[in-house]
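Researcher: I'd like a candidate sequence for this fold, 279 residues long. If you have to choose between options at a position, lean toward the conservative one.
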């Protein structure tokens, strides 16, 4: 049976661990919401050609799409370990899907070994050499983006779009942007792209009806302009405007006090019952 002193020691240790967890969250790198890299996706210009998908696969070191499927084929229809982006054609308008590269990513905040990192330039990158395969990132992502290498039993990895961080470092745009033949994708600074998106939305209300990515979960590096209601295009509904790491901290920051309070309460109960037994 655990002693009262041992219980209180354990409670205090747990409280300190939870308090220390906040230090890790607070110390994470954040991309500048104005100058950080971003992509504006104008869905009214997308023709569903899948050139972006093909370029992404080649850049990631996987075989390109068979020539017969490039164009208006249905495609894989989902993100997988090898498919880090795809053109979703299950909605009225084709929608390019990939990691949204949140300004304050939940996946990075829950990773216990910093295998996922938000860089100052904007990309959320993955360090497979330190990944322990806990898969917390899969559960944390509000857009269900990270995918696990289930068929690799020895050294399974996590995969997702890394925003072509290496190409950005070399002064190049992401591979998908460079391959787009219609100008659907525009790479640049987030603040400038948001201004352009709002200008298009305001000047052409008959063409554009929705803007996505400015405020959702504190903002994302991929911004969408659409000509249809967002709920009809498969975007997650009911996500908060506040970042998920901040919302999580509002809960866990109270746990140390709850744990210590429960420890003191149970200690009092044990002491009271002991006195009753000896009286």
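Model: Candidate sequence:
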């Amino acid at each position: 049976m655990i002693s009262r002193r041992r219980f209180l020691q354990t409670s205090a240790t747990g409280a300190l661990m939870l308090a220390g967890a906040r230090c890790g969250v607070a110390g994470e790198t954040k991309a500048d919401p104005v100058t950080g890299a971003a992509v504006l996706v104008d869905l009214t210009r997308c023709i569903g050609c899948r050139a972006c998908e093909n370029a992404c696969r080649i850049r990631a070191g996987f075989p390109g799409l068979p020539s017969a499927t490039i164009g208006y084929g249905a495609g894989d229809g989902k993100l997988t370990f090898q498919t880090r982006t795809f053109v979703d054609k299950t909605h009225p308008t084709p929608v390019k899907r990939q990691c949204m590269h949140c300004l304050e990513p939940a996946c990075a905040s829950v990773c216990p070994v910093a295998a996922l990192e938000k860089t100052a330039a904007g990309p959320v990158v993955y360090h497979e050499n330190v990944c322990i395969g806990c898969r917390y990132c899969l559960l944390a992502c509000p857009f269900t983006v990270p995918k696990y290498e289930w068929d690799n039993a020895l050294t399974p990895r996590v995969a997702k779009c890394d925003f072509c961080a290496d190409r950005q470092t070399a002064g190049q745009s992401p591979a998908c942007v460079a391959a787009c033949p219609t100008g659907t994708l525009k790479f640049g600074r987030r603040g400038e792209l948001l201004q352009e998106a709002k200008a298009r939305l305001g000047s052409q209300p008959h063409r554009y009806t929705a803007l996505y990515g400015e405020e959702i979960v504190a903002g994302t590096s991929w911004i969408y302009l659409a000509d249809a209601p967002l709920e009809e295009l498969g975007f997650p509904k009911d996500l908060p405007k506040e970042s998920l790491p901040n919302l999580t901290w509002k809960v866990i920051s109270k746990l140390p006090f709850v744990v210590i309070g429960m420890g003191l309460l149970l200690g009092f109960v044990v002491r009271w019952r002991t006195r009753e037994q000896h009286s």
